[in-house]
């Protein structure tokens, strides 16, 4: 059973955010109340994965948390001999993810791996999903991680990338932040929760602007990149090799 996110409801000496047991316990509630369109994003990533999956290939879910995208992709795979590799570097997440996946039947095998995205190998991939994970990779490593993904993708394979983005200048950024904070208020988070979470996450999650993402993907060699979702400072895109 998972519960309601009240991690920052009481005043505290705020530490850097980590994906520990307490977070795992409330994660579905936390992400749903914090990310506008989360359910739509997860289900559409599944549809996109279904459209781009190639027979005899791997699909990766990097930063899988409790396996929402893995499950969504798995529901949509209709090709032969595919394998999903779900990776997260939080042991409480991967443990809970394995339990969660056991609750659903499918012929598509899934390996849940406790590992660091900076270190894992990507091979023979038709789909690589990163649903709000690249933002937790240190900025100086992001290029190398995306290069590795590009190299591990088959021709015609796709990266499905969702990120929280920074506005292109301070005025635009503040506008998006205000809208997002309103969304959180509307979902029951107090001013104290919003402000303490902001402090906890600021050293851990460093966002890039959309133009930075698009330029980097193009420089790496992706032939087509299409943003298919944006609400406030949350977006999702497909990049085709
Ligand atoms: C979902 N995709 O529900 N290596 C592996 N995992 C990492 C790393 C790393 N270096 N850094 C962070 N993570 C999910 C949601 S959450 C997004 C993804 C959020 C993992 C981290 O442990 C966490 O589980 C996940 O990336 C980010 O569709 O909470 O905003």
Helicity, as a percent range: 40-55%
Supply the number of helical segments: 8
What small-molecule ligands were found? ligand GEK
Distance between the termini: 40 Å
Note the topology.
Elements: H1 21-34, H2 38-52, E1 58-62, H3 68-76, E2 83-88, H4 91-102, E3 110-114, E4 125-131, H5 139-152, E5 153-164, H6 170-186, H7 191-201, H8 210-220, E6 224-231, E7 234-240
Parallel strand pairs: 1-2, 1-4, 2-3, 4-5
Antiparallel strand pairs: 5-7, 6-7
Helix pairs in contact: 2-3
The structure holds ligand GEK.
Ligand GEK is lined by residues 19, 31, 42, 63-65, 68-69, 87-90, 93, 116-118, 131-133, 136-137.
Family: Belongs to the class I-like SAM-binding methyltransferase superfamily. Cx-SAM synthase family.
Domain Methyltransferase: 61-157
Keywords: Methyltransferase, S-adenosyl-L-methionine, Transferase
Architecture overview:
- This protein has 241 residues and is an alpha/beta fold.
- The protein has 8 helices and 7 strands.
- Strands 3-2-1-4-5-7-6 form a 7-stranded mixed beta sheet, with helices on both faces.
- A hairpin with a 2-residue loop joins β6 and β7 (234-240).
- The radius of gyration is 17 Å and the shape is globular.
- The model has no long low-confidence stretch (mean pLDDT 96).
- Ligand GEK binds at residues 19, 31, 42, 63-65, 68-69, 87-90, 93, 116-118, 131-133, 136-137.
- It is an enzyme of class 2 (transferase).
- Homodimer.
- Residues 61-157 form the Methyltransferase domain.
- Belongs to the class I-like SAM-binding methyltransferase superfamily. Cx-SAM synthase family.
